[in-house]
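WARN retry 2 of 3 for item q-0093 after timeout on previous attempt; input resubmitted unchanged.
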Amino acid sequence: MNMAAQCLDHPDDGIAIIDLTGGARRDVTCGALRAMTDDLARALAAEVRPGDRVGVLLSQSPWCAAAHLAIWSIGAISVPLFKLFKQDALTSRIGDSGLALVLTDAEGAALVGDLAPCRDAATYGQTGAPVPMAEVTRDTPAVLSYTSGTTGKPKGALHGHGVLDGHIPGVALSHDDVGQPGDCLWTPADWAWIGGLFDVLMPGLALGVPVVAARAGRFDADTCTDIIARGGVRNVFFPPTAQRLLKAEGTTISGLRSVASGGEPLGAEMLAWGRDALGVTINEFYGQTECNMVVSSCGARFEAKPGCMASRCRALRWR
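OK item q-0093 returned
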């Protein structure tokens, strides 16, 4: 039931992540991602015990994925952190979670300062024999994800290794049965949030659907359409704020097979815009950090109605 094994149990030559960082495209195979994960896991095992909390302060990148997978593989708990947090937000989360250390890069280490020990994920690993996956159950703690703090202090939601199985049905529904030939997932949402990490990245890896990693300084229509074109993206999770920006700029995007949205209701006007500008019926899903992807619309199965998400996302055994 180890989530790391779920995400890495694919042929070595299958594409796991399409990295568009820095303008060039680099396809990271499952074999390469597994090797990165093993290298990090070997180094972590010398400093971290099962059950320890380890922060991940990295933007969308193959190393961000490998960091979470390595932490889970040794039975520790990953804590996603966001680079755009101000000092108070980082201090609150790092102090509350009791991190053993933070996997990050030079930029992230400067943000953390003396709040916690930091290791550069890209240079921290150690080569050697494959690391055995820690034996866990569905309820073994795996990820401590914090709410955004819109009401009171940010609250940590502790999820076990079964959380990925719980998300996959909702991801499949919201992307019109994702996993069709040619499917490729992307979201502008940072992987520090549950919407990026468990509504896109990890379900994509678990299902063998390539996931695009693209670090954009700011979200705008030109950057968005460029990422979709260069990455061959067919399935997007667009938060409502991103959709409103695209609508305001008169953006049209072709070639998409599915668009999912969550966080707040879109309304009839935005759904109509999606059909005209994106060529798809936007599937709305509902969930929070504590309990995510619990209901979703699915244009491939029934007609979407504004404000109505009629299909429960039942937890199924996908393996």
